[in-house]
Please model this.
Amino acid sequence: MCDSSIKDPFFSIVIVNYNAGALLANTMSALAKQTYKNFAVIVIDNNSQDDSWRVTESLPFSCRLIRLNNNIGFASANNLAVKNYINGEWLFLLNPDAYPEPRCLEIAASQIHRFPDVDCFACSLIDANKLSHLDGLGDTYHISGLHWRNDHGAPCDIIPQDSVQVFSACAAAAIYRTETYRRLGGFDETYFAYSEDVDLGFRLRLAGGKSLLLPNARVHHVGSGITGRSSDFSIYHGHRNLTWTFVKNMPGPLVIFLLPVHLAMILYLGLIFAASGRFKIYKQAKIDAFKQIIPYLIQRKKIQSERICSCFDLLRMMSWLPRNLSIKYQLKKKYFFH
Model:
């Protein structure tokens, strides 16, 4: 751990590491090149079995390493950091396979001041393996409960010129007002990993908040650099958690109309997974989602009792078509939570 420290940084950057290998070193190198210096980094290491965490031992910026004795999951690790180790006004969550461009923090800090009523910001994610194309511009939420990174796979020249609203921010590079993150209870720790960022963005929106894309705050993202693209782990957690997200957060008046759509989506994707030979893990995800649904129905009562956002405003921010114009470059594999 480096010796320098910043008492009250503008950004507290939290990185959850688990066997990230050289990816984490690349992220630290990107942070060292930032033109904006008012930040401190907290690395929560989820009991990595490699030596990736050692990159934190000598850095030119404030960095604190917390090594855990077991893997508590992405959601819990971020919450642990926010509860015990950060004091910045803004929380910047960054994956260990996400590399901010040199002016990313500078641009983000400047833009945040323009929007004092916004509590969550999404960075533009660039495909680290194909820099001419996007990894995503915030998250899209479909009326069926599916969600994906908006414009994944599209050319970078479609990035908007100015900030626009998105349904939620992808936690690969997401910025939250620390006070708001804590007030909302942070990520749902029972998710372990996947969909926790969409769930938090959904709860933020229901509470009257919104998420904004910062188009010029750009981060190069490898994508599933730790869990693997379309792995059993990502399929299971992604499709289990998206049902919990729908059950907890969808307002009652909309459930009446959208629950059949959600169930139809489950059946449709079951057929897709069956055709691809991946049905067993998908089936188990859905069985566990419904077997363990009672705690989420209890959470639902509190979330809905505090809802400010109208059903109409919520619907305006949701996608109605599997492939609308804003996601025409999406590939079918978006459903596999890559």
